[in-house]
Amino acid sequence: MEIYIIIIFVFGYLAIALEHSLKINKTATALVTGVLCWTLFALKVPNSSFLESHHFIEFSRNIKFEGLPISDIYHSFINSELSHNLSQIASIIFFLIGAMTIVELIDAHQGFRFITERIRTKDIRQMLWIICWVTFFLSAILDNLTTAIVMVSLVRKLIQDRERRLLFAGMIIIAANAGGAWSPIGDITTTMLWIGGQISPVAIIKSLLIPSIVSLLVPVIFLSFTLKGTISNSEVTEKNDSDSRGGKIMLLVGVGALVFVPVFKTLTHLPPYVGILLGLGVLWIVSEMINPHLDEDERKKYSAGNALSRIDTCSVLFFFGILLAVGALESMQTLHHFAEYLEHMIGDKKVIITLIGVFSSIIDNVPLVAACMGMYSVEAYPMDHMIWEYLAYCAGTGGSLLVIGSAAGVAVMGMEKMDFIWYFRKITFLALLGYAAGAAMFLIMN
Question: In this structure, are residues 291 and 302 in contact, taking their beta carbons and an 8 Å threshold?
């Protein structure tokens, strides 16, 4: 049955990639793929190797299962795994909804105008450098998902031409993932390694800052030689004093709420979605207090309810379907077995981790990193060992190779209606150049 689940995952992945050719929305395909993977997993007859796996034995040791038939224990295991995956997916989705609503609220009050007015250059190459490096460093402070949402919203105000804007959006994905890799709070996989005791904040910054810079610098330089011309005038919005006052307040409070999330997580050890929802609640209250002189119909335009209605729900459901399918592969231990297979066939851990970075663009990097954390012990490879640092780099930046390889990519894909094949043709080669150059730099430094 496991082979059929893998086949469904592969066909679902291909259908997502060929969305425009098949004329089937990728969200529908992702949802069907995710549900079918779990359905077949539930109908699977557990074999002896699965029943003897550490994962299943740890679950079945619970005393309440004594005397129950294996089939009942197995179904309880499936429900437990599904609930565990749902909680992880829900935390990401609520974070995504919160961040997107904050951005929409700032945009409704024309808050981004105070940034776009200060970017005066019309040269497209200068604009590329500014956007990419702001994204890179902002991603280390916030995280790659939030930064991608903010920067794409900003680029929408600066660039009207869709083809050029998509190109910038693709580079924002590369920059956000590169910036998140060297910060302990910039990417979920780096945070996992930090919490797990495999890396320390100072060491990871010292080791990965230069490779991460190289992984962005190479594609930016390469693209600079092909881009020419100037940017047409960005959107002109009507200005008035109330817009100006409200926009400044919303921008300051909104950005403050986003920056507060990693601080909140560090202080409380609660998941990031709790911090983002707190920030959204505060911004919501502030939005209700701005422009009190407006009538009810006018105030609706600036309300959080209106901002929520503008969120692309399809992209959120697409994200849910993809993570649901990957969660089935993780619960079946398929990804763990795949990591063990690489260890047995290749042996060289540098090569294995490099390949894991590439595969993280196809399969979510979180379960792949979790599999590696289970395979390689801290006793064998202590904190801040080169293996852990290289894993943080590869898992963080490798997701840029394909548009659905990272949370930032999926978010941008939904916001800009970016096509999988378009990204593969226009951005994947640039991302691969950067990934290889950064990996080479890390290995040379070590």
Answer: yes
Tokens matching residue 139? 């991603």
The pLDDT averaged over each successive group of 10 residues in the chain (446 residues) is 84 83 85 92 74 70 67 82 86 82 83 75 86 90 82 86 90 93 82 76 89 95 85 50 67 85 83 88 88 72 80 80 84 77 79 87 74 70 85 90 85 85 92 95 91
Evaluate whether 402 touches 424 at the Cβ level (below 8 Å): yes
Measure the CA angle with vertex 29, ends 23 and 33; round to 5°.
Answer: 155
Radius of gyration of the chain from its Cα atoms, rounded to whole angstroms: 23
Q: Could you give the CA distance from residue 100 to residue 94 in angstroms, rounded to a whole number?
A: 10
Rounded alpha-carbon distances, angstroms, from residue 373 to 197, 224, 226: 10, 38, 41
372: buried, middle or exposed (CB in 10 Å: 19+, 13-18, 0-12)? buried
43: left (phi over 0), alpha (psi -120 to 50) or beta: alpha
∠ CA(168), CA(172), CA(175), 5° rounding?
135
Residue 355 has which token pair? 């390949």
CA atoms within 13 A on the CB side of 234: 23
Structure confidence at residue 62 (pLDDT): 65
> For position 235, what pLDDT does the model report?
45
Taking a C-beta distance cutoff of 8 angstroms, is the pair 386, 199 a contact?
no
Q: CB under 8 Å to 372, separation ≥6 — which residues? A: 339, 353, 356, 391
Instruction: Determine the Cα–Cα distance for residues 143 and 177; give it in Å rounded to an integer.
Output: 9
